[in-house]
Amino acid sequence: MQWSRFSPIFRDAKDASRFLILFAQHDLEGFALQARAFYEKLRRAFTPVDLELLPGETHVGVILNASGENAALVKAIERFVRRQD
Questions:
Q1: CB distance 32 to 59 below 8 Å
Q2: Residue 76's closest CA among 36, 23, 35?
Q3: What residue ranges in the chain does DSSP mark as E strands?
Q4: Closest to 45 in 3D by CA, of 16, 8, 6, 22
Q5: By Cβ atoms counted within 10 A, which residue in 28, 59, 71, 83 is the most buried?
Q6: What pLDDT digit, counting tens, does each position of 5-51 carry?
Q7: ∠ CA 32-45-24 to the nearest 5 degrees?
């Protein structure tokens, strides 16, 4: 099975809703590259998109540390939602 066909980067983005793309500072390099590539694709399609680095976090750690109002993930989502008002 080709997993790439499930990736949003290979989908048409012209009618996409606003996106929030997050990646962790200590992710594998490939994750950061994919996040930036997807961000650029959406921008080229004039899709509203925010790209944000979560400092000090790892790919799994950002989920494990997601509880509490001070968690990096929670704060990033709150900022994104507030920008939509």
A1: no
A2: 23
A3: 19-24, 49-54
A4: 16
A5: 71
A6: 777 777 776 777 788 999 999 988 889 999 999 999 999 888 889 99
A7: 15
